[in-house]
Amino acid sequence: MTDFDALRTDGSWRLTTTGDLITGAVFRLSPNPDRRALVEALGADATDPEQWESALLEAFLTAPESADLTALELHLTDVHHSAARVAVALASRRREHLAELVVEHDFEHLYEPVVTSTGRRFDPQDKLSEGFADESAVDLWAALPALRTLRVRGTLLFDGLDSSSVTDLHVSGAPFVDGAVYPYRAPNVVSLTAEIGIDVYGCGCPVGHLELLTPEGYPALRHLDLTGMALDADEEEVLETLAELPLLRQLETLDLDLELDEDVPEHLAPAFAHLERGPGED
Fold first, then answer.
1. Residues of the chain scoring pLDDT < 50
2. Is the pTM of this model over 0.85?
3. What share of the chain is helix, strand, coil (3-state, %, to 5)?
């Protein structure tokens, strides 16, 4: 049985209750140089301090009391261990009520070294072709049939998004395998917000990455927000790329910050005329 008093005392988990049910949970590793005794009390292996975070995550997410969650927010530090163990823990039971999920780890510049809880640094690009969570191996998304809103921030966290329920997707960084900002396929996503800054090499996201947004991969997409994307092209080239996207014709709103003297150049304006809100509009 999970010792919830011990978990609360540690301070990494913040739990919200509705009546007798735990319906909301936020995790962020609290400053505690030695939680060895707690990890051992939870029945986990305490020999590696960089896996203590995973033990705290698993203790709650595998407990029956987590089955009633409607919202879950996970801020990972030792992502090289925790992401995969979170995926296994979440997939350990079918979560009929979980509608909102946030999974992220902090970074300032994309692909910068990850700093673990022990202060060790490692290059996240070592996982470029496989990612950290390996969620497809445990069929994670099938265990989350009620999930509607997903926010993912980080580097190389997931293989993709094999979910038929997510409608609102917010991605930041390059959270998918092979450095993709967004998954190649998200069939029921209606609203997509994508953010990516300058990477550790001083480069922006290739403008050609926009071409990964296709009607086949995103048949339900109607609202696209690119205001947080730092692209490696000038604004007119970005607009030209967007104007040629087959996906554009199905959109209702397209948010994109512009610094041009005029909003959309006249020769490109017809491509965006059908939008209820287009580039540069409030």
1. none
2. yes
3. 30, 25, 45
Identify any residues that bridge with 21 across adjacent strands, giving them in sequence order.
18
φ, ψ for residue 12, nearest 5 deg: -75, -35
Q: What is the DSSP letter of 114?
A: E
The β-bridge relationship of strands 191-196 and 168-176 is: parallel
Amino acid at 195: E
* β-strands 253-255, 223-229 pairing: parallel
| Kind of pairing between the strands at 21-28 and 168-176 | unpaired
Residue that the structure tokens 């998918």 belong to: 176
With tokens 């509608």, the residue in question is 99
For residues 154 and 111, the answer to whether their CB atoms sit within 8 Å is no
The pLDDT tens digits for 200-235 are 999 999 999 999 999 999 999 999 999 999 999 988
Q: What's residue 223's pLDDT?
A: 98
